[in-house]
Amino acid sequence: MADENGIKNSNDLDNKLNKILGKQSPQAGSASVPATAEPAKDYRPPVVSYYKPSEIKLNSFDASNLQTVVDEIKVIEDGIKGIIATRTKKTIEEKVPVEKERPVEYNKFDKALVSIGLKKQKMETYTDYDIVKKEVPRKSDEVVVTEFKTMIESYIKSLKGLNSGLRETVVEVDKIVKNLTDVSDAFTDQIHSDRREYNAQIQNSKDLETQLEELIPIHESMSPIHDRYAEVEKLRDHLEMALRESQGMELKYKTNIDMGVKYQAALKSYRKLIHDFKERGDIHVNMVDKFAEGASHMKIAVDNVSQICSGVAKVTQSMIMIVESIDDGNRVLGRYAALIGDQMASSPQWQMEYSALKEAEVVYEKNDLLRLEQIKGNREEIEKIIKGSGN
Amino acid sequence: MEKTKLEQISETIQSISAIKFTFYIDRYVKTSAKMDSSLGKPDTKIQANYDNSREAVLQEASAILSQSKLSLSYIANLQFKMNGQPKGISKTDEKTRIYFAKIRKHQIELLSSISDEAEITSNIIKQSVRMRDVIKQNSPMIYRASNLMDILRERISERPTTLLRVNSNDEKAGELNRIFHSINKYEDNYEAGLRQESEKHPAENMLAVYYDLMQGLREDIEQRKLKIADGVKELNQGWKLLKKLATKGYSRRMQRVLDKLVDKHNARTDRFLKSVQECRLSFYL
């Protein structure tokens, strides 16, 4: 009966033990534990309760969004560089083969002959290299993005130049309009005086014509023997010549008047054209002033944008580095934990893994230091930008 | 007939030469054409050539003018005196007298016409100087202004500020936006007008008017030059005849030339009187 009791007692004990063990390690409990739990030959320390495998899973947060931002900034930068590259050229020096002539090198004997004059010094052509400066188009990777700022600045300068040129032109055009008015008035005065003279001349001619009309019948009817014939003939001659001269003057006045009128018409249309220029010019000067103002504001905007872009790039870079560091750290922790979980404590593989991990830990610390430095540097730059844009 | 007087007149008439005048006029026409076509870019060499040729023409024209006026005064005082009383009315003598009078008139008319043409040519050239100076002074500025207008017109037609806007609540951004807006409004208002105006090419049109005017004057001068050259030839022809009539008298060999000259003279006087009448009419219209 005692045997039966003893077996029954040990069974009870086993059950109790099992129950206790089961509480402490559910895995151990759930595993198919033989009814008689025989302690394993190799002892494994109990699984530590703080080890929750779900904690140390590689929890990578998605850095792909940040990467997209960096990629976008890179696209903008590349675009800007491309624009600058197409608009500017660089000068490179190039070695260009050039044919030149030089005297042939003779030996001592021949040289003596040449100096005496018995032998002629021959020339030979050889290829020399000249350094030539050439302008070549640039590739976008050769461009630095700060050149964009300089481009905007030179755009503003040229706008200012355009405006001052336009302003000067408008002032000069005004002077021209005044001068043309004077010239046109002078022509008008001339035309008027010519017309008066012409009129007077016509009157003169008409007087002479009437005189002749009276004289000619007398002359024709007079006989050559009449004592006054010579006088009459001379008078007629004189009148006819005076008439011819007077009529000649008429033609001259008329030609002058016609020319003056043509010139005046041309001047009038010229003056109108210039006056129109002046009006448009005035309007334009005002507008170009505004353009230049706008451009200087654009410069500020561009400054801000480029600062923001570089600031964002730095922030993003820092965040990516932090994420990478977390990733690396996670990996190391995970391996350690896995090792512990695998209970390979006294196997030689354990030693290898353990030392590999120690090395990895060292590397991680070194990288971390570098990353910390870089993150610190980025932070300082951003602070500078913030201070700069705040001013 | 006093031989010395005749010799004097011969000298003066023969000194009227159209050769130099023709040469100088041709040169003037060339240099003034070159001058007009290069008004936009002042060139000292072209200017010097033009000035020289103009001076030469004016000098030569005034020489012709003075010589022909002198000849005119001599011939006006030249009276036909037959050896003896004007009563020996032989047919030849009669013809001599008649033709002498006619050819004398012919010479007088020719001399008047030559001197008129020379004077008018001088006037045309002198008047054109003033106009040419005005255009020459002003056209570089006009070209520059028109270039600037073209640049602005191109810029505006690209309409770069249409969609320009900065999205920010910043005060500076707001100012920038206002400026862009007013630039855009300006472009809307003026773009069409500017484009139409510049399509009319105002600067070129104006200069085209001037070129046409100057070209017309040059053609006019050339016509007068030809008239003077022909006139001088005819003058010499007529004077030879007149001298012969005065010294040797009429001979039948002269008849054909005499008739030709008399016809030309009549045609010339008719033309002259007609143009005087036309001028008077157009003046009073």
Binned, the helix content of chain B reads: over 70%
Quaternary arrangement of the chains shown? heterodimer
Q: Quick check: average pLDDT of chain B?
A: 81
- Cα end-to-end separation of chain B: 50 Å
Which series of helices and strands of chain A comes N to C? Answer: HHHEHEHHH
- Strand percentage of chain A lies at 5-15%
Main sheet: strands, sense, barrel of chain A: 2 strands, antiparallel
Helix/strand/pairing category of chain B:
mainly alpha
Helix content of chain A: over 70%
Give the overall pLDDT of chain A as a whole number: 73
- Low-pLDDT parts of chain A are 1-7, 24-41, 51-60
**Form type of chain A:** elongated
User: Could you spell the SSE succession of chain B in H and E letters?
Assistant: HHHHHHH
Task: Please give the radius of gyration of chain A in angstroms.
Answer: 56 Å
Number of helices of chain B: 7
Cα-to-Cα separation, first versus last residue of chain A: 99 Å
- Adjacency order of strands in the biggest sheet of chain A: 1-2
Characteristic key phrases:
heterodimer; A: 391 residues; mainly alpha; two-stranded antiparallel sheet; 7 helices; disordered N terminus; B: 285 residues; rod-shaped
